[in-house]
Fold this protein.
Amino acid sequence: MMTTKEFNPDNLSSPNNLAPEQSEALCGFESITITPNFEPFNQPNDMFCRGFWDNKIKNKMVSKFFRSFVKPNERSRSADGFTPRDYALRNGPWVVTEMLAEMQKSEDRRDGFWDNFTAHIPPKLDPVPIDDPEQAANEVKKVAKVYGADLVGITNYEERFNYTGKFSARTMSNEPIELPAGLTSVVVVAKAMNYDLIRTSPSSTASTAPAIGYADDAVILLAMAQYIRSLGYIAVACQNDTNLAIPYAIKAGLGEYGRNGIVITKEFGPRVRFGRVLTNMPLQHDEPQRFGVTETCKICRRCANNCPPQAIDHGEPSDYTFNRSNIKGIVKWTTDAEKCFKFWVSKGTDCANCIRTCVYNKDFSKRRFRLLRWMLGTPLRKLALIIDDKLRLHDQLAAHKWWGDKNVEATPIVWAEDHPIDPEKVANQQRVKDLRTSVAAPSH
């Protein structure tokens, strides 16, 4: 077994033919533009992977953070939202994804996190003839929703969105991603997260929402992959592994890219988890959709203003990278993943403030919120933001109120900041960027 000192995350070279010859706005969205300097992402540079090998990140507190998902007493305490019952609530759904991740441990696989899901007894069948890709796509979507998906979209497969390497903490190695030849389509499924839980962020209570999302997503993906394989086609189910979820979700028409670095869907805002099934099944592809997110994010700083470690970019989309956990060669709003993760570790659970405070984080089954969403897609968006500020739905709610404790006043424990730009926060962030740029610049 290699030691941490010997581990080299850059042992694999990036394919040099996957960057465009000239800048290319993904699906025409100027807020996410792929440049000729684009390099496919290497999985060991993901923040969670770096917690196992990078001495800049790896420490005892990070280890306790990871252990808390199976040993809740590692971080539970008397603070509201961090009690033993809150960690028990959060860790319940994680048992599904943790069990799946551990099943292939002897094969040095961590399914759903660093490896795609292992195929379960893949049937050896001749492909069922498909004469109508549109009908086939409709059937796939119907099946996905029967299995539990809230949103489904289909787009074309692109090699450039694959990770260049696959990380293994067990052997401290970085191996190439291996996928079957002939992949043509990506079925993207989305599972909405619980609105009321997210409103208690940052807390262990709120972290239950993504835990449930991951568990549901895993079941949907496994079932979808087996359905497609049972028709005689290739199906590779991916969760946090193998490739980038955001470009595929945008291409498949499930949402737009937001300042918070998350895909914002029309139906649930940023409150979703995405999974993918890669296949060679002949399927009609969906078109991307616009409903005003880019224009709204240009004038709204809700997520950036309410990010506790100030990890979200207050400026315009750019190709600036905060650290090695950012993708190179893409002009977009970029998050400082190191600051974000360090805050998670300090709190003892993940944070969802950028989701909770987003103006699109609403229950759109209610007509008044659909009206607000419509306004955000028009020149009335500034007024819509002002109205939404006054609704105070972006404020954090006490976790004990979710539990139904009746002897505590129903008041927010933290009042969120509103949408206008904060010049001081912008200036502070720019100073840090300038300092990093000057330190990184070669001396003459």
User: Anything to note?
Assistant: Residues 29-290 form one domain. Residues 4 and 55 are 8 Å apart (CA to CA).
